[in-house]
Amino acid sequence: MNARTEWLGGNGSGDREAFQRSLDVSGAGSVLLQTVISKIVQLATNREFGAVTTLPRRPGSGDKFYSNRRAAATTGAAWVSDTTEPTESEGAYTQVGFTYRTLLGRVKVTRKLIARGRTYGDVMATELTGKAEDWTNELEDASFTGDSGANAQQIDGLLTLISGVSGQTVANTNASGGTALDIDALDQAIQTVKGSTNQAAMRIYVSRKGKRLLNAALQSQQRFNDSIIIDAGFAVTSYNGIPVIETTGIPDVMTWNPATPKLLAFSGGATTALVVVNTNYVFYSELTPMTVMPLAKKSSQYDEYDMFADLTLVIDNPKGAAILAGLS
Prior knowledge:
The structure is a single chain. This protein is of the alpha+beta class and 328 residues long. It contains 8 helices and 15 strands. It has one domain (50-56, 96-327): phage-related protein like fold. The protein is 23% helix and 30% strand. A 7-stranded mixed β-sheet has the order 5-15-12-6-9-8-7. The protein has a 4-stranded mixed β-sheet with strand order 1-13-14-4. A hairpin with a 2-residue loop joins β8 (235-239) and β9.
């Protein structure tokens, strides 16, 4: 098809150039389009809340959860003749307290942002959803590495509490730098926990690195993990019928003393650990369950919400949990 002269605007060169112009990406590509924004706000985190989601929660009262403990008598019983008097020997009683602590977070969102964001979604609800994960992550970390000696407002975590009980930390190796997981040592750690034959009550908590080390040890011995259904319908792998639960609360950079054995610090090293618990003896005691409360409005410019709980982590029986330390 031939272009007619009138289409070109006459014989002038300027008119001909005007006809030949066209829209391209560099000229209008950033203007003549409809921007599509996802309605879902992605939480840019990768966390596993093993303890928070699987440990039992029991109501509490008072300033602490008090655990009464009895150590075995020096002489339990003896075989005697019909004229021999038995030796008197009673158990020793102690009381241990687990102090309730408050975990508190606050959300503050301005009125104008809420108004501007209405076409997108509920801005306050979106922030509260993300804040709940942040709050839970803090509780998960404290559930393992919490240390009231370092932070007086914090609960003591499992690694801290178990390390304070003689005989409840099992050495995976004599090397301070750690070695691959020893299945025999894992079995010993499980047997160290009171009531370990009650598999339904038992849990093995591992970091992601610890899970890889466990998988590698089982594959090298041609042993395989089965899956098992735990509370809330979650399917997890198991070892000898005990659920193996991942958590991001157990560090992979711990230092420890294999001679004791005992964990020395949660950082500065290159080892991780497995934590074995019996949930009949290990649980959260709560004065106030996790609560979201709107604060009194004191300004037209913003809304505020507090997210809090008053709770403590309890090892009711000192033999109710164990650590397998020195994995690398």
